[in-house]
Amino acid sequence: MKGLLKLWCSVFLLSIVLLLGACGTDEESASKSDGEISIITTIAQIGEPLSVIGGEYVDVNSLMGPSVDPHLYNATHGDISKIEEADMAFYNGLNLEANMVEIFDEMSQSKPVLAIGETVSEDSLLEDETGAVDPHIWFDLDLWKHALESAVDELKEFAPEHADYFEENKVEYFEQMDELKEEAKKLEEIPVEQRYLVTAHDAFGYFGEMHDLEVIGLQGLSTDGEIGVSDIQETIDIIIDYKVPAVFVESSISEDSIKAVIEGADSEGVTVELGGELFSDAMGEDGTKEGTYLGMYRHNVDTIYNALMKGAE
Q: For residues 195 and 198, what is the distance between their CA atoms, to the nearest angstrom?
C-alpha cells in the first residue's frame, strides 16, 4: 500500500510539474531548443552510450547511478524536476523500471519518450519459467545495438539538423561494440565443465546465451523477492555436482546471498572462490572504465574469464 501511495504521489507531482512547464512562453521554448538537447534516461547503460553518440549536441542525465537497483527504484522529487526539464526520455522497459512506467506514460503525453528495450523483436527476448520477460538485454551486444539505434533514430527525428552527426558517431560506436564482441570470444577458451556463471540474481541470461555459459542466479529476474534457504542449497548442490570454481557478487545487490553459498559449500567440504564483482543492473562510478557501457562489459568478461579459467589450471 505504501508503495502504491508513493507511486501515485510521484505521478500526481509529475502531472502538476508538466502542466506548469506547458505554461512557459514560446520565447522560453525557442531559447531551450537553441541549446543542447536535454535527455533523461533511467539506467546508465542507455545514458552513457547516448552521451557518446550525441556528443556536443546532447546533455544526458541518468537517474540511476552506480549501485542503484532499477527493479526497486522509486522516483524522487528531484527526479520529477529533471524529467520536467528534459526534452526527451529513454528507459529500458520490459518491466525493468516497474515503479516508473506510469511516470513515463504521463510524460509521453507532451514529450518524446521511448522504452528502447521494447523495440527489439519479441522472439529475441528470453523468458523465465513463469513466462516473465528478461529485461537485461544490454548483455547481448547485438540486441543492445538495435535498442540504441532506436534511440538514435528518435534523436534524429527530434533534431534532424544534426542527423548526419549522430549517424557518424553511432557507426563509430557500433564498431567499438563489434570489437568488444570479438574480444569476448576468449570466453570460449573456458572448458565446458567450467562454464557455470553463478551470480546473485538472474541478470546474465543474455550474456550466457551470447557466450555459451550456463547461468545460475540465486534470485529471479527481479530483485523484489526473497532468497530462500532452498535457493541457496540448490545452488550449493550445483556447485558441488559440477565442481564450479568461483561465484560472483553484483555491484547493485547485497553480497549476503553469495557469501551464504560460499559458506554453505565450505561446510560440506567444498571450496568455492569469490570470483569478483560483476556489474549487472548498474554500471561503475563516473570517470572510471567501468562507468562506461563498453568498459563495464569488458570488466565483466575479464572477471569471469580470469575466475573460471583458474578452475581449468
A: 10
206 in the same domain as 176:
no
In which domain, by residue range, is 271 found? 188-310
Contact partners, residue 248, CB within 8 Å, separation at least 6: 197, 198, 199, 200, 258, 274, 275, 276, 277, 278, 303, 304, 307
* Helices (H), ranges, 117-228: 141-158, 163-183, 205-211
Q: For the whole prediction, is pTM greater than 0.85? A: yes
Rounded Cα gap, residues 220 and 253, in angstroms: 13
CA 296 distance to own-chain centroid: 11
Using CA atoms, how far apart are residues 140 and 137, in angstroms rounded to an integer? Answer: 6
- Considering the domain architecture, whether residues 16 and 131 belong to the same structural domain is answered as yes
What residues does 133 pair with on adjacent strands? 127
Gap between the Cα atoms of 136 and 131, Å rounded: 15
Task: Determine how β-strand 88-91 pairs with β-strand 113-115.
Answer: parallel
Amino acid at 178: D
pLDDT digits (tens, 9 = 90+) for 267-296: 999 999 999 999 999 999 999 999 999 999
Cell of 271: 571450496
User: Rounded to whole angstroms, what are the CA distances from 270 to 151, 191, 236, 247?
Assistant: 47, 20, 9, 13
Q: What integer is the mean pLDDT of 46-55?
A: 98
The C-alpha R_g of the chain, in whole angstroms, comes to 21
> What is the per-residue pLDDT across 15-43, written as a single tens digit (0 to 9) for each?
444 444 444 433 333 334 457 999 999 99
Report pLDDT digits (tens) over 179-225.
999 999 999 999 998 899 999 888 999 999 999 999 998 876 766 66
For residue 200, give the CATH number of its domain.
3.40.50.1980
Residue 265 burial (10 A CB sphere; 0-12, 13-18, 19+): buried
Three cell numbers written together for 58:
546532447
